[in-house]
């Protein structure tokens, strides 16, 4: 039996679609209910629906063998697991953003306050990469509000279409990382359940290649 941890929400729907294209029947996973474990005994598959930030935890501890999760969550959680496929969907960017007047002037503000949902990514970017110490303020959502209301100078957050930034007079000041959905695998499962996991990885990779080629041709 393989246990697959899906990130509740849009990523789960796209992951299910991809698994189906790769030849796995996901009828169980598509059941409209509030069940958190959806099992397909015949196929030997069990799906669990987890909060995105918890998917790497389930996979690291082996409660799930495989997970589908955003690179943002992986970078923030820093868990011990194998990242095996970039699925190419759920694309966005992790950026430093702030008032558009600060464009090109990010390095000139001393002792910055930075609001974010991603304190570890923010610390790694400013302290390890930029060699700059900053005050990090952890928020849980609507991060763009912080510089508008004077809570912080800048933010580190996800930018997808850029609409939230634009409509609030903010802009991208630097890009921290390119984000997309990834397949991760528990390190022990990769060896112990290789006969089930390897074919799944291969089938998914094949589908991702087809999708990427279709995008190129479009
Ligand atoms: C995310 C992110 C930005 C927004 C970016 O927020 O934190 O606020 O989407 O998308 P855009 O570039 O297409 O405008 P989400 O909707 O997940 O809610 P949150 O603000 O509560 O985190």
Bound molecules: 1-O-pyrophosphono-5-O-phosphono-alpha-D-ribofuranose
Order of helices and strands: EHEEHEHEEEHEHEHEEHH
Which class of the largest domain in CATH terms?
Alpha Beta
The average pLDDT value, as a whole number, equals: 96
Q: Into how many domains do the coordinates divide?
A: 2
Task: State the separation between the terminal residues, measured CA to CA.
Answer: 38 Å
According to CATH, the homologous superfamily of the largest domain is Periplasmic binding protein-like II
Number of strands: 11
Q: If you consult CATH, what is the topology of the largest domain?
A: D-Maltodextrin-Binding Protein, domain 2
Low-confidence spans: pLDDT under 50, at least 5 residues?
Answer: none
Plain-language structure description:
- By secondary structure, this protein is α/β, with parallel strands linked by helices.
- It has two domains: 2-90 and 180-217, Periplasmic binding protein-like II (D-Maltodextrin-Binding Protein, domain 2, 3-Layer(aba) Sandwich), CATH 3.40.190.10; 92-179, D-Maltodextrin-Binding Protein, domain 2 (3-Layer(aba) Sandwich), CATH 3.40.190.10.
- Helices cover 35% and strands 29% of the residues.
- The chain has a six-stranded mixed beta sheet with strand order 2-3-1-4-11-5.
- It is elongated, with a radius of gyration of 19 Å.
- The protein starts with a strand and ends with a helix.
- 33% of the residues are buried.
- Bound molecules: 1-O-pyrophosphono-5-O-phosphono-alpha-D-ribofuranose (PRP).
- Residues 141-144, 157-164 line the site of 1-O-pyrophosphono-5-O-phosphono-alpha-D-ribofuranose.
- 1-O-pyrophosphono-5-O-phosphono-alpha-D-ribofuranose binds next to strand 9 and helix 6.
